[in-house]
Amino acid sequence: MCDFADDCGDGSDEGKNCNSQYKTCSPQEFTCQNFKCIRKQYRCDGEDDCGDHSDEVDCKKENNTCPEGKFTCNNGQCIDSQLVCNKVPDCSDESDEPLHCNVDECAKVEIHRCGHKCVDTLTGYYCDCNHGYKLLEDGKACADIDECIETPGVCSQHCSNTPGGFYCKCDERYYERQNDEHTCKRKDATEPWLIFSNKYYVRNMSVDGRQYNLIHQDLMNVVAIDFDMKEEEMYFCDVTAKTIFKSKFGAIVDDVKIEKVPVIKHDSHGLEGIAIDWVGRKLYWLDRHSKNLDVSELDGTKRKTLKSGVVDPRAIVVHPGIGYLYFTSWHLQAYIAKMGMDGSNFTRILTWEDDIAWPNALTIDYFTDRIYWADAHLDYIAFADLEGRHRHVVLSGNKVPHVFALSIFDDMLYWTDWNMKAIIRANKFTGQNFTVIRNTTHRPYDVHISHPLRQVPYNNPCGQTNGGCTHLCLLAPPLESTYLNVEGYIEEGAPSYKCACPNQFYLARDMKTCIANCTSGQHRCGGADEKCIPWFWKCDGEPDCKDKSDEPESCPARHCRAGTFQCGNGNCTPSTTICDGTDDCGDNSDEQNCDLPCPVSDFKCRSSGRCILDSWKCDGDADCKDGSDEDPEICHKRSCDPDTEFSCKNGRCIPKLWMCDFDNDCGDDSDEPAYMCRQRNCTTGWSRCPGQSNYRCIPKWLFCDGKDDCRDNSDELPENCPKCNAETDFKCNNNRCIPKQWMCDFADDCGDGSDESDAQCKGK
Length: 764
What we know:
The structure is a single chain. The protein is mainly β. It folds into six domains: about 10-120, Irregular (Low-density Lipoprotein Receptor); about 145-185, Laminin, CATH 2.10.25.10; about 195-455, 6 Propeller (Neuraminidase), CATH 2.120.10.30; about 465-510, no CATH class; about 520-595, Low-density Lipoprotein Receptor; about 730-760, Low-density Lipoprotein Receptor. It is about 5% helix and about 30% strand. It has five helices and 54 strands. The strands form 21 sheets. Strands 15-14-13-36 form a four-stranded antiparallel β-sheet, with no helix packed on it. A four-stranded antiparallel β-sheet has the order 16-17-18-19, with no helix packed on it. Strand 5 and strand 6 (about 125-130) form a beta hairpin. The chain starts with about 30 loop residues before the first strand and ends with a helix.
């Protein structure tokens, strides 16, 4: 008895009386039908390790299913079903003659121990689960399937999991649940419009592509747009003009142009994504040159840097309903980040380790609280919840070769694609109903759906009194993440608010009042646009203050171009050369009054006031003429950040990313211990340089990009470059492959100009 063998033939010698004598199998073990424990890897290995063949029951062999009327042996062999349990082994592995032949194990619970259902088979049994449940790894217990997570497309909007099923809900303010109990149909009859930019134009069109209008033309490089439904205004940034404009909705009719008004035009040399907070009435934007994420009022006043050090930013979206914003960076260690709309709680929710390389596009489904993004290098569109969890890929491969921007409305996704030069739509869950709405002459950039339901009303915690703030009132994350409502249900907490000040202003002790902190090297603007501007913006020929106090009548006559600095000796010099430690004027007038504040990520030289990158401080090289960036007093006190920096033996701190990069960044080679660097594995999506003695790792997409990323040019050698598709690709002189449709489009996509050469483009 209780020896794991059915000696009686009916299982009675191994029944429930033996339970106390059988040991419980560990998670790393498989429980045989005779309660013996074997290692999990022994299951379905073709051998009877249990002694009753139960470890070889229901093992599915790939590409080896027998036709109807046949029995599949554990080794994949097919025999007639009548030969099973005939006391003669017809399978070469004898799996047709187990110990439990002609025994209905399902008749005794103490034998099968299935959680829900037991299914008897010719040679044994297997456990099955009721509808809406799945079998656990032990092959016996059942667990509820959370359809809302595992198959999110089962509901158009809200999904509630129930035991053995799920329940779909729609936002009853704007949608009705249909008879299929899954789909939500919009109540209003307002037609959505699609607004997009294709560098030189901004256009709108119906979502079916039949109506097509021009809003703005003669632009230089419009890459990002957003809109404000309340005021019926559109915002867009022109990278070449270094300006964010706004204009009224509409279209060009009879050559009558819609007026565009500059909103942001200073210190905006690398504009990328923009986002409108339609609840708190704020403008957010990213700048690749300054590496800043900034916020201001919708008219551009009260500008504040919320986060600095954002390298290679791309897209930004806001969710006023929860007080958070999301943005992307396509730096070497790319990520999608979540941050409070007040600049708090910065978190990378998805990183390069989650297959993020070029996160170009970003949008939010406000009715399902999901974030959608597209990767232009790995070629996919995916979504996750607002914490980056429960990720699902919607489309991948050649249908999404280079997505630039995304938008969403009802159950459809809309996006622009550079390779296809098209605007496309598909189902937001499955990618089905893939449709090219419109092809474009130039590459399409940003895209948005204009409709009131893309900016649903949320409560504004700043209220009618601006939260009591003298300047900026910014939406912020909830003070409590959840709360219990009057009906006893748990609900998400409402966003809060926080008073904030423009750059060079600070918050008083009451946490509401802003006080100016302009230096002697700055001019303070008054009126509604209180701010501190550099002294050399005064009398430069263009008003930078809304009250025009920087351009009084007392300004001397000018002959230099507006926006440039007129030296004391009459020479002209670009404003970028002022206070850089060099006498560009010849009379040193450009190096006077240099008491200017530096960005948060910079270090200010002591004597010249010049701003240098903070990473240059204490790096062993004197970047300030007075050597103040290498002051032993400063460098002695500095300690490296263990999370982001590597501590060199000479005391210098460098980013961890620079370690084992084949560069002597420390200056003493302590960041390049060859014996250790050669043993390090490259991170996901990266490859080791092909050079024989090179251990540097670079992202795979940097191979053959026209640049020596490996430091020995091994990543640019033809034998290490991908083979171009002769039908669809053009091979650049630097061995890079680009789509043929990118040729002769006035953009240097190769990086060496070979796709725009006269030889290629003559006559085109």
